[in-house]
Write a structure and sequence with these properties.
By secondary structure, this protein is an all-alpha fold. The protein is 70% helix and 1% strand. The protein is built from 22 helices and two strands. It has helices at residues 4-7, 9-15, 21-40, 50-57, 70-91, 97-121, 132-165, 169-188, 198-206, 222-234, 237-246, 251-269, 279-298, 311-333, 343-350, 359-362, 366-391, 397-423, 432-456, 460-463, 469-472, 477-489; strands at residues 210-211, 277-278. Strands 1-2 form a two-stranded parallel sheet. The two termini are 43 Å apart.
Length: 490
């Protein structure tokens, strides 16, 4: 019998946490800072005697959870799941059940102590709420994260490692598909204020959160209605597009499976009290799935590298697209264009830009915060993607590095101008957090597009020798026709 570990040493390294210890440590420290910072926002420190704070902390209440506060409890559970997960990975021994159990207990104890320390510190940072519920929820979340590392940690490391060697449209599309579906389902099930009884589902239906008639709602703002409808269509197009490119299913099968995924999501939303289960979403998913299949069909051509004589045209086209999308973003984020020129009001609103990051996000719901984060990332990612298309035509390394810096600065300027314009819009909330998120989204779109194209683009001499099916992940018409003719002659 052949020992697989000896036969393939790379497989051992891929699943060994010690080989990724530095990466896990960086992720653990970054998330630790995020968890502490997010628990103390808006950082409004109010000094008080330490002894008095300790006495008050000993009397912190256990709050009864209703439908409204249930989402906060789940949010605290979710906050500590990644914390327990990554720290279990950092400290996890290579083998030994007893050692793993000891490390798990150590990590869980550290997470609980951190939770208690955060709750105590929140007494000095009103209007934060201090309760036993948060400690209990975060302890449960840490335990789930530690167990998650035991079960899936090594597999996750192997999956992340496989991205380095992934090449071709089919391989990358399959990975991106499952990542996109995870984000899509996770977001649409927020804020996880789960229904725990049939009575609550009945009340949800009586309140109009279960819509069984297509378009059975009142349109109050036509522009907002059109925007929401277009968004509901577009979010499902990447699912069918990536599914076709992965080569796992045929086009009509892909359309059916995409619609089935949308139906499953609507059924799951039935058990989330604040979400609306609407038949209209199934119709928009059908259109989005059809759009994605059509785009995948149009993609059935091999990608090639930069052609001679076409670089300048591609750069100008990318620059024009950058300017057009910048105008679209300004139109979206400045709507309804109720600009004001009052000096006192402008001076007061300029002060909003000096608030600490994520200050405004605290005063809304967790779902609203996640929505705003995704809006900024998704809307500004195309800016970077367009600039990356022009960047791919540049072969000179020094010029390419200068263009990388210029692309990031360009996204930063556009995002700053949009936030600056919102200062003069009383109905908007200018925020440096939005500027930072927009910059992250644009940079992710720029460098992510370059990373993907390095693995998708085929050199012209290689593309001439390969079939289109190797790039599209589906069979082209010419390929199917040649197979039929061959079968007939045989």
């Amino acid at each position: 019998m052949v020992d697989r570990n000896k036969a393939d040493p790379r497989a051992v390294r891929r699943h060994d946490p010690s080989a990724h210890r530095l990466m896990l440590l960086a992720a653990a420290l970054a998330y630790l800072v995020f968890a502490v910072y997010g628990s103390l926002v808006p950082l409004d420190f109010q000094p008080r005697p330490l002894a008095l704070a300790w006495q008050e902390f000993q009397r912190i209440p256990y709050l009864a959870l209703g439908a409204g506060s249930r989402a906060d409890w789940v949010a605290n559970v979710l906050l500590f799941i990644p914390l327990g997960f990554v720290w279990a990975g950092v400290l996890s021994p290579a083998r030994g059940g007893l050692a793993r159990a000891a490390v798990g207990a150590l990590v869980w104890g550290g997470c609980v102590l951190l939770s208690i320390a955060i709750e105590f510190t929140q007494l000095f940072f009103p209007p934060r709420t201090v309760s036993q519920n948060d400690v209990l929820a975060e302890g449960i979340g840490a335990a789930i994260g530690i167990a998650g590392w035991w079960w899936w940690g090594r597999s996750l490391l192997g999956w992340l490692e496989s991205w380095r060697s992934a090449r071709g449209a089919a391989s990358l599309s399959e990975r991106l598909l499952w990542l996109y579906l995870a984000v899509l389902f996770g977001y649409n099930l927020l804020p996880l204020d789960l229904n725990v009884s049939a009575v609550e589902i009945y009340h949800k239906w009586r309140e109009g959160r279960v819509v069984l008639v297509p378009f059975g709602f009142v349109v109050q703002d036509t522009a907002e209605w059109f925007y929401n409808l277009a968004t509901d269509v577009l979010i499902w197009a990447p699912v069918s597009f990536l599914w076709v490119l992965s080569g796992k299913k045929r086009r009509f099968q892909t359309w059916r499976w995409t619609v089935a995924a949308a139906f499953m999501l609507e059924c799951l939303q039935l058990f989330v009290y604040s979400r609306v289960s609407d038949v209209t979403d199934l119709l928009t998913a059908m259109l989005g799935a059809a759009l994605g299949v059509w785009l995948a069909r149009a993609r059935e051509v091999p990608l090639e590298g930069p052609r001679r004589g076409g670089a300048s045209g591609a750069i100008w086209l990318a620059s024009g697209g950058f300017l057009v999308w910048s105008a679209v973003l300004a139109a979206l984020f400045w709507y309804p264009y109720d600009f004001t020129a009052e000096r006192e009001l402008l001076r007061e609103r300029f002060g909003l830009l000096a608030q600490v990051p994520f200050h405004n996000y605290y005063f809304g719901t967790e779902f609203r915060a996640v929505t705003e984060v995704l809006h900024k990332l998704v809307f500004f990612a195309p800016l970077g993607m367009l600039l990356a298309i022009g960047r791919m035509q540049v072969r000179d390394r020094l010029l390419g590095r200068l263009l990388d810096v210029g692309a990031v600065l360009g996204v930063a300027v556009v995002a700053f101008v949009i936030e600056l314009g919102q200062v003069a819009l009383p109905s908007k909330h200018p925020d440096t957090t939005d500027w930072l998120l927009a910059l992250v989204g644009g940079a992710a779109g720029y460098f992510g597009t370059g990373w993907l194209c390095e693995r998708l683009i085929v050199a012209p001499d290689t593309a001439a020798r390969r079939r289109p099916t190797e790039y599209a992940g589906v069979r082209s018409k010419e390929h199917r026709r040649s197979r039929r003719h061959g079968a007939g002659h045989s």
